[in-house]
């Protein structure tokens, strides 16, 4: 019996990888073995960095809240502690936006927790 190879599925798999590699530089975009490695590595990075992005944004928000709180004579930790004590349920993303774009609203929150 002749050997049967599912070339339709193999070709589809290769096409999918080559489509992901479109736009890469040099042989990474058109040589199968190199493109496969490049796409595999890119997928690992994208998986990892979807989680890292959340950490990066949280630290950015904390930095912005700290800068805003210090303008009104409070540290970040004291400000957040007072927010919890006064049961003000604003998250860091909203507080950072207020500190950056609406300083008068942020000042009102700081005055409320002092």
From TrEMBL:
Tree of life domain: Bacteria
Keywords tagged on the record: Ribonucleoprotein, Ribosomal protein, RNA-binding, rRNA-binding
InterPro entries named among the record's database cross-references: Ribosomal_bL20, RIBOSOMAL_L20_CS, Ribosomal_protein_bL20_C
GO biological process: ribosomal large subunit assembly; translation
GO cellular component: ribonucleoprotein complex; ribosome
GO MF: rRNA binding; structural constituent of ribosome
Pfam families linked to this entry: Ribosomal_L20
Keyword rRNA-binding attached: yes
SUPFAM superfamilies hit by this protein: Ribosomal protein L20 (SSF74731)
Family from the record: Belongs to the bacterial ribosomal protein bL20 family.
NCBIfam families: rplT_bact
Role played: Binds directly to 23S ribosomal RNA and is necessary for the in vitro assembly process of the 50S ribosomal subunit. It is not involved in the protein synthesizing functions of that subunit.
Listed name of the protein: Large ribosomal subunit protein bL20
Organism: Marixanthomonas ophiurae
Gene name of the encoded protein: rplT
């Amino acid at each position: 019996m002749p050997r049967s190879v599912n070339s339709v599925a193999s070709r589809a798999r290769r096409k999918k990888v080559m489509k992901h590699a479109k736009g890469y530089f040099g042989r990474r975009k058109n040589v199968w073995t190199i493109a496969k490695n490049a796409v595999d590595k890119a997928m690992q990075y994208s998986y990892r960095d979807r989680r890292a992005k959340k950490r990066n944004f949280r630290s950015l928000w904390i930095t912005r809240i700290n800068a805003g709180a210090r303008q009104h004579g409070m540290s970040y930790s004291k400000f957040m502690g007072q927010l919890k004590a006064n049961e003000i349920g604003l998250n860091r993303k909203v507080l950072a936006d207020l500190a950056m774009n609406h300083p008068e609203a942020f000042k009102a929150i700081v005055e409320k927790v002092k």
